[in-house]
Amino acid sequence: MALLALALCLGLTLAAPAGAAEPIKVGIVGPFTGSLAHNASEMKKGMMLALDQINGQGGVNGRPLELIFGDTSCKPANGVAAAKKLLSRDKVLVLGGGYCSSVNIATSEVANAEKTPVVVAIAISPTITNRGLKYVFRTSPNSPMFLQGINNWLAEVKKPKTVAFFMENSDYGRDGQKIWEAQCKKIGAKVLDSFYFEIGDTDFTTQISKLKQLKPDVTFNIASTTEAALIQKQAKELNFVTQWIGVGGQFTQAYFKMTGPVSEFAMGSSLEPTKAMKDPVTAAFVKAYQKKYPGSRPGIFSSQGYDNLMVIADALKRAGKLSGNLAKDRDKVRDALKATDLKLSQGAIKFGPDGQVFTVYPSVVQVQLKNCQPDTYIIYPASRAAAKYLEPTPWSKRQCK
Amino acid sequence: MESLFLQQVVNGLIVGSVYSLIAVGLTMIFGVMRISNFAHGDFSMVGAYIAVFLLAWVPGWMGWVGSLLAAAAGVGLLGILVERGVFRPLLTRWTDLDQIMVSIGLFILMENLAQLFFGATPRTLSDPFGGVTVNMGLVSTSAMRLLCFAMAMVIIIVLEVYLNRARMGVAIQATAQNRTAAQLMGININLIYAVTFALGSALAGLGGVLYGTLFAIYPTMGAIPTLKAFVVTILGGMGNIRGAIFSGFILGVAETLGGTYISMEYKHAIGFVIIILVLLIIPNGLFGRSEK
Amino acid sequence: MLKVDNITVAYGKAKALHGVTLTVEQGEMVTLLGSNGAGKSTLLKTISGLLKPRQGGISFLGQQINNLPPHKIVELGVVQAPEGREVFPSLSVRDNLRMGAFTRRDEKAVARDLQFVFDLFPRLAERRDQAAGTLSGGEAQMLAIARALLADPKLLMLDEPSLGLAPLVREDIFHVVQQIYQERRVTILLVEQNAKWALGVASRAYIMENGRIVMEDLGSKLAENEHVQRAYLGY
Q: In what helix (H) or strand (E) does residue A82 lie, and over which residues does it extend?
């Protein structure tokens, strides 16, 4: 482990040059050691799959791609050191990867100062792309965009007349509420009332009884697994029916074990590639991933890593033949990145003038039953949907126990 | 036609019945031994996990009823061991602070052991009624919630009868009211301590099964019952058993009605507001403190 | 019957009793006089086993009792009736009496004794279902004595039965104590502040000052002693 960490810090060269052509160097930063090492390795697995595919098809404009890794340990100081080394000593053309918002806020500033394009794979703080930095791009949605899929669905499909909020009393819950409230205003849905609960609460009957009187079409409920599951159970006990909408992170194995079929019709959003098998590009990614890593299932981070490197390779390709002048070539790549227009495992990728991808947003999932077993299925957007949206039915009409 | 008011009263009474049950055990132990057991809710957690394992082995009705009995016995036994091993050695030399620190240590230890042995994943008990709901016109609830309420009531009544009729039960009350006089009457107070701690813990265990049936079971679940039991105990007068019973229901209903008609955000604060008011106006609690 | 042999008792470092020796023979009524803080209650607590002597020993009917827990001492028949404030306030009069009989298994004998105390204290019979905390001072004192009687004592120790009572009520209590002594033939160790009465009824008496026994004699003799007259009888 220590040796591995050392190798990563030194910037281990992972791709052997194919043939005689000199490889194009791409720097990849990430927390390859520390508590997020597992997630970073998922990202790397996605990137290695992309690298195989790129170099397997002859590389970029006849030259193979070479990845040089730098470890950030999710600490801004380490991240800055790793980025500086990649930019000045390894002279990478472009910086990819990234994980942890605080680190990426710092590393993107370093790269921007060096006039090197940086493409952030995983980090959701809006700050990264809203400082007007000309060399910064991001392939991951930022935090407001995580709720964008649900917002679109509300506007296009559900069109609720009345909504209520039942939120975790935390930044997570309150920030989410602000975004949805703005959307409700836009689509003319009336907010009937807002309730909050504390993390760790178990009895929600008071709030649910009151919600039952209000009869909202949609009840927004940002909650983590345990609270979300208890709320579903108690809603049943109090005979309350609504369209529950959360963020989606609550839909874990433990959640379904606690709720059983009671969680039917609850909604959230998801970036899991395996949920979007209807999308041929995503399905191809999942298949290729499982071929390279037998027995494993690609998660969000693998898919985001894959897309990140694919975007970089595409821009390098469109940048054309490189001059050898590092500054000029980096500018060329930056310009090519701006014109990105791809379809990848997370969906379409186009950058706005701020460098933020605006076409990737989580798919909307709904809990549905197959043989009374609950699971999430994508219901929106139509291009990725695996199932149709189902309107919640009264408890008395539900068959599964 | 549904009534929000009645619905909230019913919600409050159901939760309140479990508050009462858990608080009675706490107040009994305090009344007799002057121990404020901050690990009391963790005894409930142990009871709930006994139910998890028993129900996995014997599902359905038999398992549920059996797990109540097993939780009472198992947690009661744990109570005897903890009283002998942890609290009794401190009995002669403790200050209040000693036993409070020890019980807080016990609470941390029990949570961590539970995490180690049972894992952090929350679990639920399967409902022997299969999730049947009861819609009675004005109010809705589930058969399981009603059963939990009824079971809490039965246990409370059995306890009341035991404490007021049985020789040992009356002796527990006598010891709580005047330890010295009890000794002068030939009551073996070490035996009373053991019985009281066992009984108080068994009540926590029973409450834990009901709490786990209503809500969920996880290693840190004991924190809320401990907190509520202390609120109820102070409200009812420290050591006052009947006070704790009534205050449990009062707290349950005050929380739901306060949440409905005052502010949902202050639902948890309501118990504390009542406590502060009670302590300011009637320092011995709504029902008076037990005598010393 | 009871032999207290040269015992020393201390609360922490402060000695409360310094080498106290006292005996009570079967059938006697012995009184222990002394001002507040002289150590009378400490002595009773030590005999009852609530306090343990540092030195010396206590025996009852030839058996060493100073190492026994309080409930074992009660089982042997040494029973203390504490002051009337020491009843169980939230329990009914009847339950208080029931607790007095806690160590006894013979239900018939207990029922007989219950009848005896109800005859002795008709007021308690009237208030049998009332909480003890609602009784008057005199009634509570009666209850404390009645409760001790239900333990079927061989040696009854009374701790200041007349303390804080109105003169008329005090007379009642005095009367009852004598009645118990005569009818039940129970040996009594009486701690009392009313020296005049105590010296009158007791066969023997001890005077205690500053944790020591300073005098011991027949009750009638002590009543004539000049020091006792000045200090306790108010002459």
A: helix A76-84
Site of tokens 């949805």: A180
3-state secondary structure of A168: strand
Residue with tokens 């639902």: B267
When CB atoms are compared, the residue of A195, A254, A401 closest to B122 is A254
Residues 107-126 of B with CB under 8 A from A: 121-124
Question: What is the per-residue pLDDT across C157-212, written as a single tens digit (0 to 9) for each?
Answer: 999 998 888 888 889 899 999 999 998 889 999 998 888 888 888 999 999 999 99
Q: Mutate one of B183, B185, B290, B292 to test the C interface: name it (highest C CB count within 10 A).
A: B185
The pLDDT value recorded for residue B289 is: 56
Domains and CATH numbers, chain C: 1-77+153-166+188-235 (3.40.50.300), 80-152 (no CATH)
pTM across the whole model:
0.80
Q: Are C83 and C89 in contact (CB under 8 A)?
A: no
Q: What is the largest CA-CA distance in chain C?
A: 50
What is the 8-class DSSP label of residue B283? T
ipTM over 0.95: no
Chain B CB contacts of C134 under 8 Å are: none
CA proximity to C215, closest of C200, C231, C197:
C231
Identify the structural domains of chain A with CATH numbers, from first to last.
2-141+279-349 (3.40.50.2300), 146-270+362-397 (3.40.50.2300)
CB contact under 8 A, B130 and A202: no
Query: Where do the domains of chain B lie?
Result: 14-220
Q: Which two tokens stand for residue B280?
A: 């300011």
- Left, alpha or beta for C68 (phi > 0: left; psi -120 to 50: alpha)? beta
Nearest of A174, A157, A25 to residue A93 by alpha carbon: A25
Dump pLDDT digits (tens) for A7-65: 444 444 444 444 458 999 999 999 998 878 888 999 999 999 999 999 999 999 999 99
What are the angstrom distances between the C-alpha of C134 and each of A195, B32, B286, C130? 49, 22, 19, 7
Alpha-carbon distance of A244 to A366, in angstroms, equals 10
DSSP state of A32: -
Q: Which residues make beta-bridge pairs with C32?
A: C191, C206
Q: Which of B68, B71, B80 is nearest to B29 (CA)?
A: B80
Is residue B195 within 8 Å of residue B188, measured between CB atoms? no
Question: CA geometry: angle at A292 spanning A290 and A296, to 5°?
Answer: 40
Show the 3-state SS of A322-370.
CCCCHHHHHHHHHHHHHCCCEEECCEEECECCCCEECCCCCEEEEEEEE
C223 vs B75: which has the higher pLDDT: B75
Q: How far apart are CA C84 and CA A198, in angstroms?
A: 52
pLDDT tens for chain B, residues 1 to 292: 568 899 999 999 999 999 999 999 999 999 998 889 999 999 999 999 999 999 999 888 899 999 999 999 999 999 999 999 999 888 776 577 888 899 999 999 999 999 889 988 888 888 888 778 888 878 888 899 999 999 999 999 999 999 999 999 999 999 999 999 999 999 999 999 999 999 999 999 999 999 999 999 999 999 999 999 999 999 988 888 889 999 999 999 999 998 888 877 777 788 888 888 888 888 777 776 544 3
Residue A198 has a pLDDT of 86
Q: How far is CA A162 from the centre of its chain?
A: 29
Q: Is the Cβ pair B8, A262 closer than 8 Å?
A: no
Interface test mutation site (partner A, options B140, B255, B262, max chain A beta carbons within 10 A): B140
Chains B and A: 3 or more CB pairs within 8 Å of each other: yes
Sign of the CA dihedral running B272, B274, B275, B277 = positive
Alpha carbons within 13 A on the beta-carbon side of B23? 33
Residue B237 burial (10 A CB sphere; 0-12, 13-18, 19+): buried
